[in-house]
UniProtKB/TrEMBL annotation:
Biased composition (Basic and acidic residues): 212-222
Subcellular location as annotated: Secreted
Protein name: Serine protease
GO biological-process terms attached to the record: proteolysis
C-alpha cells in the first residue's frame, strides 16, 4: 500500500542545521540563480547541533481572563468579576479592576502590577477558588499591533514580514492572531518545546503500526514524536539511513509558536492552538491512518478512539506521495469539508505537476506550492493546475546563506527526542503551514459561518502575483495575509456583519459631550443594563459602555470589536495654578559635582527642562540630604529672592533623609537651596511636577507664597500626649478668608517620647493616618498637604506618651470652591489609608508593590496625580523607596530614605497616569512594610 511521507524528508528537502557544522550539499544546478539579500541570522536561538539554552521564564501579564459559572446581565457579571478579582489581588499585594467582557462571554480584569511565576499562580488560584468562577487564565497575547514582536528569531522569519516574498503577516496581526482557532497538524507528532507548549492541545497518536510507532503500542493518546530516523535499507532497498526530522514540530512552530515571549520565534497565528496528530513514522504512514486523523480532527468518530473535544478548524497535511487521490482520502477530506474544517495540503517537492501527488490532487483541499526569498517558485516545488496558491517555503539554501530557508521549532535529537532546538528547512511542507495559519485567522475573525470554500475563495481573491513569473502554474499567486484579513461587510457570509464603531465627542464637561451610535443592518447597540441605544447622537456623561449585539437572523463577525467605553472629562483645560505632572527626574545631585559648604547655597534649573515650560510658578520636588558632616537644616526658596526664616528639611550628621518640597521658582527658572549647618552636605532634588504660571483664580488652583511660620509651640506650651492643637490658616498671614487646603512643612522638636502626628481639618473625625513619625529627642520635618476646616483651621494630633513641640511653615494654598479645571486640587475629606502592607505581607528586597488610586475613595478615573504620606515601618535593612506610576518605567529617584528599624514618613506627590495606580519599589537588602495615606488628588485634564 502507498505510504505518504512528509515533504521535508532528507531525500526530498535540504535540511540545514543552525550550527557551525558542515551543511548538507546542494544538488548541482546548471545555472546558479541570483541570490537575494540575506536575512539577519538569529544568533540568540538554541541551534540544533549546538549547546541547548534554558527555556525562558513565564511571560508576565497584568491582564487575566475570567469565565463565570452562570451568566447574568452585563452589569451583574462585571460586579461579580470585579469582586473576585479584588479579593484575589489582595493575596499578592496589589489591586485589580474590571476591564471589559469578551466576545466569548468571558471577562477581562487588570491587576495593579504585572504578575508572573508564583504571584500569577497565587492570583489565579484565588480567582479559581471563588464559587462564581468557572475558569481563570492569563491574558498574555497582545492584540492589534503590527509592532515587531520581541522573539529574537523574528528577524530571520522573512517568510512572515518580507514585503516582496513574505506573507505580510504584520498587517494581518492588526486584525487577528488566531484566537480560538484550532489547527490540526497531521504529521510525525510533536516534541516538547517551550516556544510551543502553551499553544499545544492534547492530540492523538493514530499510527496503527506498533513497529513504526516506537512507543510499544499502536494508537494511544500520546502524540509525542518518538523520532522518525531510519537505518540503511529499512524503508526501501537502497535508501540510506536518515536522522529524525522532527517534521511535525517544525510545521507546528510555523503555524503557532508562542509570540512576544522573548523566546525563539513567533508563529504566523501565535494565538491559535495546535492539535497534534501523529500519523507518520520512520517509513511514512498508511493512508488509512491519515484518513482517520482527518476525520477525528474534524470532530468525527473513529472506532476505538475517544472523541476529539476540540474540533479543528483547519487540518494541515504536509505529506503525500505519487498516487491518485484514493477514495479513502477523498471521503475523509469531504467529511472535514462538510464539518466546516478547511484542509490545507503541500503540493510536493518533486518539481513535477502537483496533479501527480496525493492528497494534493484531491478535491476540496487548498493545495500550496512553495516560493523562495527571491519571490520565484522554488525549483523543487510542484506546480500546475492542481495548485491553488503559493506560500514561502524557502529555496536556494547554501552554506554561506542558509537563512533563505524557513526557521522553526525543532529538537536536538538525531534519533530520540533530546533538548529543544530551532532548525532551517525548505519544502512545500514549510509553505503549507503558512496558509493553514492564515486560514485559522480568517475563521477566528469571521466565525463558524465562514466555510472552507469561503476560506479558499478569500485566499485566492487576495493573493498577489509572484515577484517572478510562474508560467508553470502557481495557483492564484502568493498568499497575502494582510489583504486576506482586511475584511469588510461585503466579504462576509450572508447575514454576518461587522458592527461599526461608536464614536465619542468629549468637550470637557460641556453640553457638547456626546456619543454617536451608527446604524448597521443586523446590529443593535446596548448599555450595561441592556437598554438599547437607537442610532443617532446621544448626550454623554460619566462613564459610558456600549456593546454591539446581533438581532435575530444575523451573526456578528467573531473577531469584530463589540465594546466601546469612554469616561467623559468633567474638567476644563488646565489653568494658572494647575499641577502638571512629569515623569520624575533628578534635577540636582551634588555628589557628581561639589558638596555644598556650610552656610552656603546651591541653585538648580527647573524651567525649560524635561518638558517643563520656560515660565512656571512653583515646582514639586523631593529633597534629599546625604553625607552630612554636621547636623542642620535646608531651606528651599525661589532663586533671586530673600531667604525665608523657615526650614524644609532637618538632618543629623551622617544621616540620609528626604522631604517633599513645594516652592516658588525664581524669575531665572531656578530654585535655591541653603545649607544651614556647621558642615558641608550633599543635596539631591527629584522633580515630579510643576504649577502653571499666571494669575491664580480658579477653585483648586495652587498659590505659592514665601514660606511663613503659622505655628511654633516653642513660644508657648508643648502639645501634650494624645491631644490635638488647632491653628488658624485661612485669613492669617495674608491668606484669603477661605482656602480649600494648605501646603505646609511640619516639624517635630523636643519630643519627650516616640510617636506620630496626624494633620487633619477641624470639624471632622480624626483619620487613621500619620503625617510624621518621630523618636524621643528627634528634630524631624515632613511636608503636609491638608484640607482646611470650615473655621479656617488645621488640627495637629500628638499620638505619643510625651509632650512635643510642633512648628508649621506654610508655603502655599489651594483656592476654595469646587475645582473643575484640569490639574487643580481636590482634597479628600480627610487623609485616607490606601495601603498598609502590615495587613498582609512585607515588601521583599528589590521588589515592587502597588495600589489603585483612581476609582477608589472618590478619586475619579483620569486623575493625574495624588498627594500621599508614605511611611516605612519595620525595615530590616537600610534603603529607600521609589514611588512611580503603574505602567511607567521606574525612575532613578528616591521618595523616602530609611535606616534599619526606623519608622519614617515622607510626603509624595506622584503622577498616576492612565492606569490610575501607584507602584512602590523597595531598594534595600531587607524586607519592609509600607503605609500610604492619601490626602487628595489632581483633576484630569
Amino acid at each position: 500500500m502507498f505510504n505518504p511521507r512528509p515533504f521535508a524528508a532528507a531525500a526530498l528537502t535540504l535540511v540545514t542545521v543552525l550550527a557551525g557544522a558542515a551543511l548538507t550539499a546542494l544538488p548541482a544546478q546548471a545555472t546558479e540563480p541570483p541570490q537575494p539579500s540575506k536575512p539577519a541570522a538569529a544568533a540568540e536561538l538554541p541551534l540544533r547541533d549546538a549547546s541547548p539554552q534554558s527555556a525562558s521564564a513565564q511571560v508576565p501579564t497584568d491582564q487575566f481572563i475570567v469565565g463565570l459559572k452562570s451568566r447574568g446581565n452585563i452589569a451583574s457579571e462585571a460586579a461579580v468579576t470585579a469582586q473576585a478579582a479584588r479579593s484575589a489581588a489582595g493575596r499578592v499585594g496589589t489591586a485589580a479592576q474590571y476591564v471589559r467582557a469578551t466576545a466569548t462571554g468571558a471577562q477581562v480584569v487588570k491587576t495593579g502590577k504585572s504578575l508572573q511565576g508564583a504571584d500569577a499562580d497565587t492570583f489565579l488560584a484565588a480567582l479559581r477558588s471563588s464559587p462564581d468562577v468557572a475558569y481563570a487564565e492569563p491574558d498574555t497575547i497582545v492584540q492589534a499591533t503590527a509592532t515587531a514582536p520581541n522573539d529574537p528569531g523574528y528577524v530571520s522569519q522573512w517568510s512572515l514580514w518580507d514585503e516582496t516574498a513574505g506573507i505580510r503577516i504584520p498587517g494581518a496581526w492588526d486584525y487577528n492572531r488566531g484566537e480560538g482557532a484550532v489547527v490540526a497538524v497531521v504529521d510525525s507528532g510533536i516534541t516538547y518545546h517551550s516556544d510551543l507548549t502553551a499553544n499545544v492541545l492534547a492530540g492523538y497518536d493514530m499510527l496503527s503500526n506498533p513497529d513504526w510507532a516506537r512507543d510499544g503500542d499502536g494508537r494511544d493518546p500520546n502524540p509525542q514524536d518518538q523520532g522518525d530516523w531510519s537505518t540503511d535499507n529499512q524503508c526501501e532497498p537502497g535508501l540510506p539511513a536518515s536522522r529524525s526530522s522532527w517534521h511535525g514540530t517544525h510545521v507546528a512552530g510555523t503555524i503557532a509558536a508562542v509570540g512576544n515571549n522573548s523566546n525563539g520565534i513567533i508563529g504566523a497565528a501565535p494565538a491559535a492552538k495546535i492539535l497534534p496528530i501523529r500519523a507518520i513514522g520512520p517509513c511514512g504512514g498508511y493512508i488509512s491512518d491519515v484518513a482517520d486523523s482527518i476525520i477525528w480532527a474534524a470532530g468525527g468518530t473513529v472506532s476505538g478512539v475517544p472523541a476529539n473535544p476540540r474540533r479543528a478548524h483547519v487540518v494541515n497535511l504536509s505529506l503525500g506521495g505519487v498516487s491518485d487521490c484514493s477514495v479513502t482520502e477523498q471521503n475523509a477530506i469531504n467529511f472535514a469539508q462538510n464539518a466546516g474544517t478547511a484542509v490545507v495540503v503541500a503540493a510536493g517537492n518533486s518539481g513535477h505537476p502537483a496533479s501527480e501527488i496525493s492528497p494534493a490532487n484531491c478535491q476540496n483541499v487548498i493545495t500550496v506550492a512553495a516560493s523562495g526569498l527571491d519571490g520565484a517558485r522554488a525549483d523543487y516545488s510542484n506546480y500546475g493546475s492542481a495548485v491553488d496558491i503559493t506560500a514561502p517555503g524557502g529555496s536556494n539554501m547554501t552554506n554561506e546563506n542558509p537563512w533563505t530557508g524557513i526557521v522553526s521549532t525543532s529538537n536536538f535529537g538525531s534519533t530520540v527526542p533530546e533538548g529543544e532546538a530551532y532548525e532551517l528547512l525548505q519544502g512545500t511542507s514549510m509553505a503549507a503551514p503558512h496558509v493553514s495559519a492564515i486560514a485559522a485567522m480568517l475563521i477566528s475573525e469571521v466565525g463558524s459561518t465562514y466555510t472552507p470554500d469561503m476560506v479558499e475563495a478569500r485566499l485566492k481573491a487576495t493573493a498577489r502575483p509572484l515577484p517572478v513569473a510562474c508560467p508553470e502554474g502557481c495557483g492564484a499567486g502568493l498568499v497575502d495575509a494582510a489583504k486576506a484579513l482586511a475584511l469588510t461587510n461585503q466579504d462576509l457570509p450572508a447575514n454576518t456583519v461587522i458592527p461599526a464603531a461608536v464614536t465619542f465627542s468629549d468637550k470637557d464637561g460641556t453640553a457638547d459631550d456626546t456619543l454617536t451610535v451608527p446604524e448597521v443592518q443586523g446590529v443593535e447597540y446596548v448599555g450595561f443594563a441592556g437598554s438599547v441605544f437607537p442610532a443617532g447622537i446621544h448626550t454623554g456623561s460619566g462613564t459610558v459602555n456600549v456593546f454591539a449585539r446581533s438581532i435575530p437572523g444575523y451573526t456578528l463577525m467573531a473577531g469584530a470589536n463589540i465594546q466601546w467605553s469612554h469616561t467623559y472629562a468633567t474638567t476644563s483645560a488646565p489653568v494658572a495654578g494647575s499641577l502638571i505632572t512629569v515623569t520624575p527626574f533628578r534635577a540636582l545631585d551634588t555628589r557628581t559635582s561639589s558638596i555644598v559648604a556650610k552656610d552656603s547655597t546651591v541653585s538648580f534649573q527647573v524651567a525649560g527642562r524635561n518638558s517643563i515650560p520656560a515660565k512656571v510658578s512653583a515646582v514639586v520636588f523631593n529633597l534629599t540630604v546625604a553625607e552630612a558632616r554636621s547636623f542642620g537644616f535646608v531651606t528651599a526658596y525661589a532663586s533671586g529672592t530673600a531667604r525665608p526664616d523657615a526650614s524644609n528639611l532637618n538632618f543629623d550628621k551622617g544621616q540620609i533623609v528626604a522631604n517633599s518640597v513645594t516652592v516658588p521658582v525664581g524669575a531665572d527658572g531656578k530654585v535655591t537651596l541653603f545649607n544651614r549647618s556647621a558642615g558641608a552636605t550633599h543635596l539631591l532634588a527629584d522633580i515630579s511636577g510643576y504649577y502653571r504660571e499666571g494669575e491664580v483664580t480658579a477653585p483648586g488652583a495652587f498659590k505659592s507664597i514665601e514660606p511663613k511660620r503659622f505655628l511654633d509651640t516653642r513660644s508657648g506650651t508643648a502639645v501634650a500626649p494624645d491631644t490635638a492643637r488647632a491653628f488658624q490658616v485661612a485669613g492669617a498671614n495674608g491668606l484669603p478668608e477661605t482656602v480649600s487646603a494648605v501646603v505646609l512643612n511640619l516639624t517635630v522638636a523636643e519630643a519627650k517620647s516616640n510617636g506620630f502626628v496626624t494633620a487633619y481639618p477641624t470639624g471632622v473625625n480624626r483619620p487613621d493616618a500619620s503625617n510624621i513619625n518621630f523618636a524621643a529627642g528627634q528634630i524631624i520635618p515632613n511636608s503636609v498637604t491638608v484640607p482646611v476646616g470650615p473655621d479656617g483651621k488645621v488640627m495637629l494630633y500628638n499620638r505619643s506618651n510625651g509632650a512635643t513641640h510642633l512648628i508649621a511653615d506654610v508655603s502655599g494654598y489651594y483656592l476654595s470652591g469646587t475645582p473643575t479645571a484640569g490639574g487643580t486640587f481636590q482634597p479628600l475629606a480627610a487623609p485616607t489609608r490606601f495601603l498598609d502592607t502590615r495587613l498582609f505581607y512585607p515588601l521583599a528586597p528589590d521588589d515592587t508593590t502597588s495600589f489603585q488610586a483612581a476609582r477608589e475613595h472618590g478619586i475619579p478615573a483620569g486623575a493625574t496625580a495624588i498627594v500621599m504620606n508614605l511611611t516605612v515601618a519595620q525595615a530590616t535593612s537600610n534603603g529607600f523607596v521609589t514611588a512611580f506610576p503603574v505602567g511607567a518605567t521606574r525612575p532613578d529617584i528616591s521618595s523616602v530614605n530609611f535606616d534599619r528599624g526606623q519608622i519614617v514618613a515622607n510626603s509624595v506627590t506622584t503622577p498616576i497616569f492612565q492606569h490610575g495606580g501607584v507602584a512602590l519599589f523597595n531598594r534595600s537588602a531587607g524586607i519592609t512594610h509600607l503605609i500610604a495615606d492619601v490626602s487628595g488628588y489632581f483633576l484630569p485634564g
